[in-house]
Amino acid sequence: MPFIALGLAPALSRAAADLGFTTPTPIQAEAIPAVLAGADLLATAQTGSGKTAAYALPLLQRLAAHGHAAGPRPVRALVLVPTRELAAQAGEVVRSLAQHLPARPKVAVAFGGVSINPQMMALRGGADVVVATPGRLLDLVQHNALRLNQVEVLVLDEADRLLDLGFADELARVLALLPAQRQNLFFSATFPAAVQSLAGGLLVQPRRIDLPAAPAATDAVVMQRAILVDSTRRAGLLRQLIQEHGWQRVLVFVATQHAAERLAAKLHRGDLYATSFHGGLSQGARQQALAEFKERRWDVVVTTDLAARGIDIESLPVVVNHDLPRSAVDHVHRIGRTGRAGEGGLAVSFVTPGTLAHWRLIEKRQGMSLTLEVMPGFEPTEATPTPSPGSGGIKGQRPSKKDRLRAAAALSEKPE
Ligand code: AMP
């Protein structure tokens, strides 16, 4: 059954397809029509069930149906989550699913443990959807960065973990700020007494969904994004994305050892815990970098294709192609570093006007076609080179002469 059969708008089912979601998971099949009909929801759902899209898709459709008035955007949908990782992950999914909507809603993500200022800046002009941990949300309310009196839909994602992590008081304070008239969507993996009583106090004649734990996919699912950006602005964009989304343990791929050193140093200067890892380091230095990355001392490791295979690093939440891989085969190895079973992963590729043709070939070999995103403030200005005959081909795994030239060109690129 396709998503459209559940009553979803084509723009949303297309965005779902872009993420590789062609058939709804059981929880999506049950939740989407119920939420579209305006019902409250009480769902037993584990991570891996596809619960994020189960609430995000119908929520986005409901927001789009009513449109928003001119002026600052009031928060119309609030998603409360227990952890920074889940906030970042859910926010990413909501953004991706909204990407083809004609009036794209603004999605803001907020969590503690990082500076509040960028989050306040991101809320300037308001936001339609806010995904947040309760404590930081209250801080933002206190700073007058947002108001919650126009929330139409409230989502509690992983309600049991919210209570386990001691968020009961914050939750009560957030709930007191919401209008009484609203739709409530309640997701929890378990239903101990405290969770039941929270649900009892919140929900009005909820539709119950009790599905046994059923992972959406046995294999890890990797969400891919491609962003068009000038070659000279990639480091700036990378830094912004890492800070904005609170990404941790990011593996960044570049073309050469020299580029790995340079980019790591640059990110480090930009206040990120970044280091490099490549074949030019001594065995001892490599082992140390790897051990420190495993211990989570570094948030960002910039590497060459060395780290794409054969190295014992557990799967990571985010990999970034700062420089595109030489070949589709390398691309597969690189993105294979992300995608944890049941949790999914994110692979972001920076495509520059100069590498667009090469990217299209990688896509073609992969049988995929991603929407090229452009980030506000990073609109590309570099010219797209006119292709010369025979350029940009994808070869096998060994570097060809052209590959070496490309690597040399990457080296001599203007410093970013
Ligand atoms: P969630 O339970 O929302 O954390 O999702 C678990 C994983 O399933 C994520 O990696 C999603 O990208 C993936 N997923 C969600 N819905 C679908 C679907 N309909 N088809 C395939 N994968 C999905």
- Globular, elongated, flat, extended or rod-shaped: what is the shape? globular
The fraction of residues in strands falls at: 5-15%
Ends distance: 47 Å
CATH fold-level name of the largest domain: Rossmann fold
- Work out the number of β strands: 14
Poorly predicted regions: 213-219, 390-397, 410-416
Task: Report the bound ligands by name, code or SMILES.
Answer: adenosine monophosphate
What Rg is obtained from the alpha carbons, in whole angstroms?
22 Å
Number of spatially distinct domains: 2
Portion in helices: 25-40%
What's the story with the biggest beta sheet? 7 strands, parallel
Any idea what the CATH superfamily of the largest domain is called?
Answer: P-loop containing nucleotide triphosphate hydrolases
SSE pattern:
HHEHEHEHEHEHHEHEEHEHEHEEHEHEH
Q: If strands are numbered along the chain, what order do they take across the biggest sheet?
A: 3-4-2-5-6-1-7
Question: Could you say which structural class the secondary elements and strand pairing correspond to?
Answer: alpha/beta
State the CATH class of the largest domain. Alpha Beta
Nearest-integer average pLDDT: 86
The CATH architecture of the largest domain comes to 3-Layer(aba) Sandwich
Count of alpha and pi helical runs: 15
